[in-house]
Write a structure and sequence with these properties.
CATH class of the domain at 43-177 and 217-278: Alpha Beta
CATH topology of the domain at 43-177 and 217-278: Rossmann fold
Order of helices and strands: EEEHHEHEHEEHEHHEHEHE
Radius of gyration: 19 Å
Strand order of the largest sheet: 6-5-4-7-8-11-10
CATH superfamily of the domain at 43-177 and 217-278: Vaccinia Virus protein VP39
Strand content: 15-25%
């Protein structure tokens, strides 16, 4: 079996869940999953309400910090946010000087929410056709910046999508911004140790099965980008935002300690942000 990220043959199965089988590449150390469900159907209105509606303010502030970082490498220009969700990042982009912005997503519920959040911003919102490897053929313009803000890990056919975007939708001197979960060796080892003690239904939570198809690290991201003629210009790591209720039962507190606190200790840099450009961009 060939690694979907770096094309290595050094691949072994980590876990076999009902919803997906997970694999570890011995070369780039990425973890990826072959979902047995249509992952695009998971992103309905409830998903966006449960995961984003209550943190819009924090999300906007985080988006502004990302925009400030991107501006160091591309101060102005057109921007496409692929997997735009409810449009909060696009709102920050427009309000911080980027023009001719567009958002693309496979979820009609996400685009409906984005339409409300961006109703006065004159941003093109594109509903991508699912199960179509030529999704990017729907994008008629080229952009100075293409962003994947917490979206690239959710794309099952990421090589096809990414290849089309770079080839047809990115200007020659454009840049790519990617923010995605970062996974390390200790996190994987901990999950494997827990699998000896706990049912699989608990272990799959550590790998976000089936919603996230790929868990990168810096090496895996470098190899992935290189296969499309891109190189990393800048990278930074960060700890994730923690939402925790004050009204947890003892069982919930134990679960939080086992699945969140220990894993965060072993893998503190939970998110990775990347700026990349073409090798021949100059």
């Amino acid at each position: 079996m060939m690694c979907y990220i770096c094309q290595s043959l050094k691949v072994k199965k980590l876990f076999d869940f009902d919803a997906a089988a997970s694999y570890l590449c011995g070369e780039c150390r990425a973890v990826y999953s072959n979902a047995r469900v249509n992952t695009y159907e998971l992103y309905d209105r409830k998903y966006f309400v449960d995961n984003y509606e209550s943190i819009r303010t924090q999300q906007f502030k985080k988006s502004e910090k990302i925009i400030k970082w991107i501006k160091q490498y591309k101060e102005k220009g057109s921007l496409l946010d692929y997997g735009c969700g409810s449009g909060i990042f696009l709102k920050a982009a427009v309000e911080n000087g980027y023009n001719k912005c567009a958002g693309a997503d496979v979820s009609s519920d996400a685009l409906a929410a984005a339409g409300k959040n961006l109703e006065d911003k004159h941003i093109d919102l594109i509903h991508l056709k699912t199960n179509n490897t030529d999704k990017c053929g729907q994008l008629k313009n080229k952009f100075d910046i293409i962003t994947f803000v917490d979206s690239i890990a959710h794309i099952p056919d990421v090589r096809d999508v990414f290849s089309n975007l770079i080839q047809y939708s990115l200007h020659q001197k454009g840049i790519v911004y990617i923010r995605t979960p970062n996974i390390n060796f200790w996190y994987i080892l901990y999950a494997r140790a827990l699998s000896l003690l706990l049912p699989k239904k608990h272990i799959k939570l550590l790998f976000f099965i089936p919603k996230r198809c790929i868990l990168f690290n810096k090496l895996a991201m470098k190899k992935f980008l290189s296969s499309f003629g891109l190189s990393i210009t800048a990278v930074y790591f960060e700890r994730d935002y923690i939402r925790r209720s004050d009204n947890l039962s003892l069982k919930q507190k134990i679960g939080s300690f086992v699945f969140q606190d220990i894993s965060r200790y072993l893998n503190p840099n939970r998110s990775m942000s990347i700026i990349a450009k073409r090798n021949d961009a100059g």
